[in-house]
């Protein structure tokens, strides 16, 4: 059990090209940090730029933290885990959010937040390397994704994530006989 949040930005109409590009670049940052492999005892601030890279490439940025620790019946944002300079190094077993975003004052805002467990990565090194296992199981807004911006690796990650959502959430929706919700899930997690 724990106390946390998860965020998905959705668009109920036709997004502008800027909204679609910004959303896709935020998603790219989320994916790039989520699949990163890094040495044990690495501080979050050291890897945080991977979440910003796709935005930085086109002169965009965000003014909030990239993630926070998860409390056990405590706060939604629990120190000392995260990606700021005063956070402790990441260790296997820690939970953190990964939540890049982009905000255009007076126009729109985007935030994609997942919860991830820090786990040991499978490498050929004798040294311990870590990565993230995303435990949030909520699809992203397909209406806002520009597939032409995603790399083949990012698309593979997205497809694998959608398979995981179907495998874990689909059976529960079937068990509860939530047919409309199951149909939405299937459509939202198409490769």
From TrEMBL:
Transmembrane segments: none annotated. Pfam families: Peptidase_M24 (PF00557), Peptidase_M24_C (PF16188). The gene is Xpnpep2_1. The keyword ATP-binding does not apply. Gene3D superfamilies: Creatinase/methionine aminopeptidase superfamily. Residues 2-119 form the Peptidase M24 domain. Keywords: Aminopeptidase, Hydrolase, Protease. Residues 129-191 form the Peptidase M24 C-terminal domain. The lineage of its organism: Eukaryota, Metazoa, Chordata, Craniata, Vertebrata. It comes from Rhabdornis inornatus. GO terms for molecular function: aminopeptidase activity. This is XPP2 aminopeptidase. The keyword Cytoplasm does not apply.
């Amino acid at each position: 059990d724990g106390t946390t949040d998860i965020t998905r930005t959705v668009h109920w109409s036709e997004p502008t090209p800027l909204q679609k590009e910004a959303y896709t670049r935020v998603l790219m940052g989320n994916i790039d940090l989520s699949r990163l492999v890094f040495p044990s005892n690495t501080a979050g601030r050291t890897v945080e730029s991977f979440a910003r890279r796709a935005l930085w490439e086109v002169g965009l940025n965000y003014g909030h933290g990239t993630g926070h620790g998860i409390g056990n019946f405590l706060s939604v944002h629990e120190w000392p885990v995260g990606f700021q300079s005063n956070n402790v190094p990441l260790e296997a077993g820690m939970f953190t959010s990964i939540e890049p975003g982009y905000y255009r004052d007076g126009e729109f805002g985007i935030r994609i937040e997942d919860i991830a467990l820090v786990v040991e990565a499978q490498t050929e090194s004798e040294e311990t390397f870590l990565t993230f296992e995303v435990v949030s199981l909520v699809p992203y807004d397909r209406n806002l994704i520009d597939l032409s911006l995603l790399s083949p690796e990012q698309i593979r990650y997205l497809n694998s994530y959608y398979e995981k959502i179907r495998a874990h959430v689909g059976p529960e929706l079937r068990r509860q006989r939530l047919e409309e919700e199951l149909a939405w899930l299937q459509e939202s997690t198409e490769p």
